[in-house]
Every structure is written in C-alpha cells, then in structure tokens.
C-alpha cells in the first residue's frame, strides 16, 4: 500500500476494515499465507461469503490473491497480507478530506 492515501482510498480502506470477519482475515494472514479453504475453515464461514470479504480487502489493496499449483496438480488460490500502516489523527484526516468525492452527486 502506498504511503499517502487519497480521501476516497482512505474511505475504501476504512470500509474494508469495518467488518469483524475482515479483521480476522487480516490477523490470520498476518501469520502466513493461506488458501481459500483454509481461511473458510478457520473462520467457520462459507466460501462464497469468504470471497465477498476477500474482495473488499483486495479492493482496498490490503491483501493479494494469487494461484499456486499444489504437488497433486490442483490449482489453489492463496492470499497474502500486503504491508500497511495507517496512523489516524485529525491532521491526517484534514489532509485527505479534500480528496473525498461526493459519489452521490456523480450518480
């Protein structure tokens, strides 16, 4: 993740972090990469629901998904955590606030 977020990017990241399952996914991936079935079992959720959470985290550039072929020849989708650090304080929010677009007006 780049060092300086724009306003809309910050909103995407904060939105991605606003769910307990997504925070748990980050905590798991902080330990080591996991493939989808591992994550689903660890979180005790369905794979379709897991994919929705993974998509939100990928859109925020917090995680990265890629395919690997196992020794048995099976394609497996793995996820890793992208390094990131966000310090939230009033100064930072004041800096990025001007970069927030009014999406409702554009629609």
From TrEMBL:
The keyword DNA-binding applies. Residues 12-89 form the HTH arsR-type domain. InterPro entries: ArsR-like_HTH, HTH_ArsR_DNA-bd_dom, HTH_MetalResp_TranReg, WH-like_DNA-bd_sf, WH_DNA-bd_sf. SUPFAM superfamilies: Winged helix' DNA-binding domain. Signal peptide: none annotated. It comes from the Bacteria. This is Winged helix-turn-helix domain-containing protein. The lineage of its organism: Bacteria, Bacillati, Bacillota, Bacilli, Bacillales.
